Amino acid sequence: MIEELSKVDSWRALPPPGANLLVALRKLPEAQSRIALHPLGALQISQRFAPLDAKIDRVGAQKPSDGKRFSLSAASAAFVKRRDVDERFAPAQFEDLSDNERLSRKAFEPRHGGVELSAAGAQLESGAAIVRVARYDLITIDTNARSHRFRFAVLAKVFFNRLFAGAAVARSPLSMKSRKTRVPVEDGVKEKSEGFAVALQENNRSFKADSAYFASEGAAREWMQSAVAKDRNLADRLHVLPHFELAA
User: What is the DSSP track for the chain?
Assistant: First the structure.
């Protein structure tokens, strides 16, 4: 894990969200750091060796001997943790799964792989105010006649579009088929994470409020195992299912 986090590829400097830098960075000398960080940007530290904040039963074919769970935090006065960074990991490489679970579980799941850090304190600060005198010329152009012509053109366009929408050529099956071919769906295609939940087997209702949604099946199963370890009576009462199958 330390070797992975020590690689240069595991460190990325991110610009501020929605910011246009409008600058060109010069090439840094080899003796200095290879990462140029914007004062208001973020520093992303992430690895793909093993998932963080998760129970690790194995790493490939080997059993870990120095720990079962690893976390990454910032111990610096200049930087604070902003959020967790997700990477894609194969559950079969880190969990003891049965043959049925290996076939039913997804090949890769999003799990925590690192953190994103930013400067501590206020993120955006304004500079000192500077007084400037703004000089401008005011030119008034009388466009009364032109505005009347423009309103008539807009009205004619609206009237034409209304007549065209109800015309026989627009309502014909061939015309409607052509429009549906160009736009196959009305609301567009929206991508949404599937999500998983820990529910009761008797009614598929969420067991608790904090078990209603997990980004990956592995995180949901880990939460369920932790709950069963605290109360053995829940062993045959809970199961993990996709979020869309959760009863309302």
Answer: -HHHHHSGGGEEEEPPTT------PPPPPTTS-S----TTSEEEEE-SSS-SSS--S-BTTB--SS-S--------SSEEEEEEEEEEE-GGGTS---HHHHHHS-S-EEEEEEEEEEESS-S--------------------HHHHHHHHHHHHHHHHHHHHHHTSHHHHSHHHHHHHHHHSS-SS--------EEEEETTT--BSSGGGS-BSSHHHHHHHHHHHHHH-GGGTTTEEEEEGGGS--
